[in-house]
Amino acid sequence: MSQNRLRLVLAFLAVYLIWGSTYLGIRFAIETLPPFLMAGTRFVTAGSVLYWWARRKGAAAPSRVNWMTAGVVGTLLLIGGNGGVVWAETRVASGLAALLIATEPFWIVLLDWLRPGGRRPGLAVAAGLLFGFIGVGLLVSPFDLIGGGRVDALGAAAVVLASLSWAIGSLYTARGAKLPTSPTLATGMEMLIGGALFFPLSAATGEWATFSLAAVSLKSALALLYLTVFGAIVAFTAYVYLLKNTTPARASTYAYVNPVIAVVLGWAFGGEAITGRVALAAGAIIAAVVVITRHQAGGPVSAPPLPARAAGTPARPAAATSRRSAF
Fold it and tell me: Which of 66, 170, 176, 192 is at 20 to 30 A from 141, Cα to Cα?
């Protein structure tokens, strides 16, 4: 195997396995860490590293407009997107959260269609949307279907809203948001601003009043370290490498591989059951994501944004849209 091919394989494995595992990592981290305080610590740390690295590699200093735009994107993707996920995982299984976040391409298609002069989805994409939302309905139904038990409605709704917020942020970045040309610099800025906003949110929700450093378990501390170093830095770097060295369609395959990995890891290491309901819903949602991403070539979901549990911010590829988001 050539060195370039080996690097591609390792980059794909990083994006597939690391981002697929971050849902379970979040669940372990928030066992003894407050959700918003954990997320803020993670992203401010990772954002500082990425910002420093980009500037060290020669990225130009961002303008005031760049910072303002990064603030909007960081709020949509991190506070709305990742924040919804970390809070929801106090109420729902990590695998379920991963499957619901996988619906983000559905929202992008719908929002892009509804905007003035928007792009109407073709028959295949419309069928994918219908099939996908049937899967979502099956997954979040309040009834005990196929022996799957009831799902916490508030937690499920939070993940759906997180996916919608991520889609809005993704479309905003894809439509010419004024961000730095360096994807690493832009990502660092968005993590810094979005991560910093988690701290007042944490205070407002009473997390600081009840937080005790002595109560943090080693498991949660290691999970936070993993999410910061691997989920938000290593896997993001691997994804940027893929965007530069393979096609957007191939890079986008994480969108339907990650949920499968998340469900399996939740079952294997988190004690989360794979019921008949989860299996059927997962099949419907993942099939829909495959159809939509494969039939939207050249559109805003030709290479879907990165998952809201992972890096947490957008990345700009060398081609296709002017801005493609990364989580």
Answer: 170
Beta bridge partners of 324: 315
138 is a domain residue: yes
Domain-embedded: residue 147:
yes
3-state secondary structure of 304: coil
Question: 16: how many CB neighbours lie within 10 A of its CB?
Answer: 18
For residue 161 the two structure tokens come to 């809203």
Average pLDDT over residues 65-86: 95
Range of the domain at 67: 3-295
Closest CA to 258 of 20, 17, 13: 20
pLDDT in tens, 234-275: 988 888 888 888 877 787 788 889 999 999 999 999 999 888
Average pLDDT over residues 50-68: 96
Helix (H) or strand (E) holding 40: helix 35-56
User: Distance (Å, rounded) from C-alpha 319 to C-alpha 323?
Assistant: 9
Question: Does pTM top 0.70 for this prediction?
Answer: yes
Question: Residue 314 to residues 9, 145, 307, 326: CA-CA distances in angstroms?
Answer: 22, 37, 10, 4
Q: Is 181 inside any structural domain?
A: yes
Total domain count for the chain?
1
Residue 305 lies in a domain: no
- Tell me how far apart the alpha carbons of residues 271 and 137 are, in angstroms, rounded to a whole number: 24
Question: 């390792």: which residue's tokens?
Answer: 10
Side chain identity at residue 201, one-letter code: L
